[in-house]
User: What shape does this take?
Amino acid sequence: MGGMGGKEKIMAYEFVYASEYAAYRSDCSDVLTETCKRLKRKDIIAQFVLIGSGGRNLVTRNGNGPFDLDYNLNIIKAPGSYWNDLRKLKDTVRVALNESEGFECFSPAHDSTSCLTAILHFKNHPAAEFSFDVAIVTQNDNGDYLRLVHNKNAWGLGRDQYTWTETPSSYDVKEKAEALKGSGLWEKVRSRYLELKNTYLLLGDKNHPSFVVYVEAVNQVYHQYFS
Assistant: This one.
């Protein structure tokens, strides 16, 4: 609009105060606790953990839009049929999650590439107020986390592919994070995390969930100051 004399505002991620998302965190914990109980009935032993954003006071929102919390659902033990059929594993988790959400006001979980996303709506308003993402993960023999990724239309052939994908250098990220906090460098991590989130937003990259961005931010700041 040439006569406005200004620039169009570019949306960007900003941090959300912990006091604003505390109640949602409690609701998500209830839903995922029930999900793990339902999975156990199918001999799938899993644990959930709030990661990246909510676990480290790094929750972000894009402008005035909704915000979310990110969880890892760590598959510790499962029958061989699930390891041999990752579609079956993800579908089983999705169904258990949807059944558990019946106790709350979440919509059915959407199957995205890297996670399952459940959205919460209020007062029959069509706009989403809040959502939470659940990434299905497991650990390899080295302790690194592997994410269950659903590649839709793999190789452009209209075929779905389910694979385990290793997250970048996730093995000692907890120890690195504690070292950075102990050295007064946590604000550097927060700043880098936000920069990476907005870089991927600008690129339209939807394949970097918050946990991966968090690992990248910790590794980059750690290597900058300790390598």
Remarks:
- Strands lie at 13-15, 45-50, 60-62, 67-77, 110-111, 116-120, 130-139, 145-154, 159-166.
- The longest helix spans residues 18-40.
- Residues 1-9 have pLDDT under 50 and may be disordered.
- Helices lie at 18-40, 52-55, 80-83, 86-100, 173-182, 186-203, 210-226.
